[in-house]
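Q: Hand in one record:
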Amino acid sequence: MKKTTAALVALGLVVAGWGDDGGTTKAGAAPASTTTTEPPVTPSGALGGYQPVSDVGQHAKMSADVCDINALLDARPIDFTAIGVIYRDGRHSTEANGSKRTLGKFAREPRSTEDLLGRYERHLGAGWLDAFASAALGGTSAFAGEPDLVRRQGVQKGARDQVLVAWAFHELDAAVDKATKNNFANATGAPHNWDEARAYYYGEKPECTPYATAEERGREFGTGSAVNERILAAMHQGLKALLAKDATGAAKARDEVVRNITITYIQSAIKYSTEIDAALAQGKTDDARVWQAEGWAYFRVIEPLVAGVNTGAARDVTGVFDLEAKPAQGSGEKVASALARAYEALKIRPSEVGQYHVS
């Protein structure tokens, strides 16, 4: 028995008719490709209840780069130059060819042909991902003349949330694409890309990944760990589908992951628009500016998805967070009502978002 089989048994994914290298194709699944002998795979360790069937240990180390960036962001003064070196050159994650895997390299790559990230590029423009992070790092463009604490929000959320979520989306799409082409090899095919998505979302250090953002929002909105629990369930379902050579099932699981990630960043936009109002009510205009930047950085993670179902809602939210305008009272209500108009089309229930209360 291959090493991967043991891992699948632990997940309960090896069932009657399903083997390591093929087996029965489910109804509606992609036609099975010719069975070939796959080299043995040694899966990397579990990622928050998800057991990979391939080696994604190095991919999960991208979270350590983000942790290092966070540590530098907590120092005073902030050394944006040192952070830029980590962003551009990488530190902890090594690719198969021996080069460093980096946040900046991924952020600069074109994505127009992809499903999810193609929507982002069409809505936000080519280079959208790197443009935001680099502007915050360099204090240019929208961040020109802004204080360090405003730039800090763009750097931190640009790296941890925008880049890592985009990377997870990229791998989910790659997994589904390979599945439609009958590439189901554990080591290099659709299951491997599916594992990579979990590695970027959860990471070796989950306290520095989008997983942590979802946990924090769940505590603040009274929804607990529901988002992360549903994402984990969908990741299991998608992997099970891929091991059964079921491309349709994998696509359905991908959509559920995306739906739940969207909830986290809806919550984030609501939180920081509400915090703008609270800061202004106390005369803390500098704090309000920080919350405005933070809200923008978070909303950008899902802006194209919201705009895809309701352009007016997305426009209203970005108007609140636009750094060309000063923070304004009424931001919380404007953002919450705008996003609510998109819930049905996004297949999100208000109860899944919950309610935020200013601490």
